[in-house]
Amino acid sequence: MIPASFNYHRASSVNEALDLLKQYGDDARLLAGGHSLLPAMKLRMNAPANLIDIGRIAELNSIRVENGTLHIGAGATHSAIAASPDVQGHAPVLADTAGMIGDVQVRNKGTIGGSLAHADPAADYPAVLLILNASINVIGPNGTRSIAAGDFFQDLYVTALEENEIITGVEIPAMPQGAGAVYLKFAQPASRFALVGCAALVKKDGGTCSEVRVAFTGVGNMPFRDSGVEGALTGQSADASAIEAAAAQAAGGIDVLSDHFAGEDYRTHLARVYARRALSQAAGLA
Predict the structure, then answer these.
(1) Beta carbons of 213 and 225 less than 8 angstroms apart
(2) What confidence tens digit (pLDDT) does each residue in 73-89 have?
(3) What region, left, alpha or beta, does residue 133 occupy, with left being phi > 0 and alpha being psi -120 to 50 degrees?
């Protein structure tokens, strides 16, 4: 289908984008890579009168490590994140994850900020940002603020973003010394979104798991840390039987999604399988 007619505005700075959002209000939408918004517009599910293009704002495209923290601009594309030496050195699991997203065309145009703002429950980044204790920086009419990843995702396609706020970037602290982290997913073949995705971080002291972080995407209405799995493995040996027992707790107490791609029982089974695989690989890297 063809989108409804709209006015196009290219912002040259974040401040200009904020001014345009204030000017056009509910009749405006931000455009970065366009891989979430444009399909919705073609289906007439979203018909903004004004598109504000922020994809060429240079200040949103940087990737750097500063004082031990990785800073990724909201406009950084998936391919740029996957190829960045800073990301590969600081948070290799994030570089690997970016390389799994969609296909080449999607990775070349899609942005981390756009993905986070859209908050698709099957998107790949959120689970990884949760185990990395990332923060999401935003700016709006009331100034700037930093939102912990665990507080940012609130429900199905719902985030902590307030009216006329723009995501400016993501900050990721250093991983615990000696920890291993992986992200694995069972992908829907056409879209490459995760029917179930599991991110795991394991730190070992000797043969014991001293710190465990596990997060899922594609399982519930929003990404989440799985405290049941984490608690079951923390303080335990990193052997196969302990990991198997911990993984069996996956998705406990969660309202698991059910759709035409996968039912609740199958998704729960996949969550346990991928928790076991992700924990095993992360422990092997630790």
Answers:
(1) yes
(2) 999 999 999 999 999 99
(3) left
- Helix (H) / strand (E) containing 22: helix 14-24
Q: What is the amino acid identity at position 216?
A: F
State whether 134 and 73 are in the same domain.
yes
Strands (DSSP E) contained in 67-156 are 69-73, 135-140, 143-148, 153-155
For residue 176, give the DSSP letter: P
Q: How far apart are CA 56 and CA 149, in angstroms?
A: 25
Task: Specify burial of residue 86 (Cβ count, 10 A radius: 0-12, 13-18, 19+).
Answer: middle
Q: How far is residue 227 from each of residues 135, 216, 217, 273, measured CA to CA in Å?
A: 20, 11, 14, 17
Residue at 250 is within a domain: yes
- Tens digits of residue pLDDT in 127-155: 999 999 999 999 999 999 999 999 999 99
Expressed as residue numbers, the domain containing 193 is: 180-285
Do 115 and 189 share a domain, yes or no?
Answer: no
In total, how many domains does the chain have? 3
User: Does residue 259 surpass a pLDDT of 80?
Assistant: yes
**Rounded alpha-carbon distances, angstroms, from residue 4 to 47, 48, 53, 182:** 6, 8, 17, 42
> Strand, helix or coil at 196?
strand
Burial 133-167 (b: 16+ CB within 10 A, else e): bbbbbbbbeeeeeebebeebbeeeeebebeebbbb
**Cβ atoms within 10 Å of 77's Cβ, excluding its own:** 22
pLDDT of 64 over the 90 cut = yes
Instruction: Pick the closest to residue 62 from 47, 44, 79, 75 (CA basis).
Output: 75
Cα 78 to Cα 27, 43, 87, 258: the distances in Å are 28, 25, 11, 28
Query: How buried is residue 226: exposed, middle or buried, by Cβ count under 10 Å (0-12/13-18/19+)?
Result: buried
- Alpha helices, DSSP H, located in 122-212: 125-131, 149-152
Under the banding of pLDDT at 50, 70 and 90, the label for residue 190 is confident
